[in-house]
């Protein structure tokens, strides 16, 4: 099937990308640890507006944003914490006691953190108080990213390079039962994934899924039925690894990174109209 996504812009290449999110009239792009790791772009002109530095950071796993509190959250697995930045760059951090991977914000404006090694999802208040700590079902191995829907259910991407199952699952709020799933054994056919690492949900709860090694983005129905491929491998230069969906503008921001000589060496974000 042909992709229905159209490339409208590509943000500049630079260090590998660890996260991308949109907030108001701006796009935020997180690169590897250094100085000025967060690049801020205008959502219309795509002009670089400013850069932010994350103080006291060691390594980054992901970034998300909260429209209600006008802040960014950044995962730091080396020190097992989450950094919270306001839009002026003021920062604080709090411990999460395991290595954080994927981040998202739920309808209650709380932070959802996915922990791949311990197979957990934790919910934190905007000020770092632990609200919930749940363990995923036994067959959900290497969960990368989770989104909590308005009904409390979770959409979870899971499956590492050597795992037997690579899926997207919809799971009950208590994380005891899988309601729907898409995927199975890793592969390149329709209905298969090769490391489904990240997802985004639109206003009708259709799900966009990043498939790293197949280098594509797949669209699923609210019950995780296959709809179509919205980004194909010839539209992303390297391996896609993060994405963000701007519901208001119907824009999909897809981060992809170059992998060379055993490490990620560069990254960029491609903007799609979908």
Annotate the secondary structure layout:
Blueprint: E1 6-10, E2 17-23, E3 26-31, E4 38-42, E5 48-52, E6 62-66, E7 71-76, E8 81-86, E9 91-95, E10 103-105, E11 111-115, E12 120-124, E13 130-135, E14 143-148, E15 154-158, E16 166-171, E17 178-184, E18 196-201, E19 207-211, E20 216-220, E21 226-231, E22 239-246, E23 251-260, E24 263-273
Antiparallel strand pairs: 1-24, 2-3, 3-4, 4-5, 6-7, 7-8, 8-9, 10-11, 11-12, 12-13, 14-15, 15-16, 16-17, 18-19, 19-20, 20-21, 22-23, 23-24
Instruction: Give the amount of beta strand, in percent.
Output: over 45%
Number of strands: 24
Secondary-structure-derived class = mainly beta
Which overall shape is indicated by the principal axes computed on the Cα atoms?
globular
CATH T-level topology: Neuraminidase
State the helix count.
0
State the share of residues found in helices, binned by percent: under 10%
Please mark out the parts with pLDDT under 50 across 5 or more consecutive residues, or reply none: none
The oligomeric state of the chains shown is single chain
Q: Separation of termini?
A: 15 Å
Largest sheet data: 4 strands, antiparallel
CATH 2nd-level architecture: 6 Propeller
Count of structural domains: 1
Radius of gyration: 17 Å
H and E string: EEEEEEEEEEEEEEEEEEEEEEEE
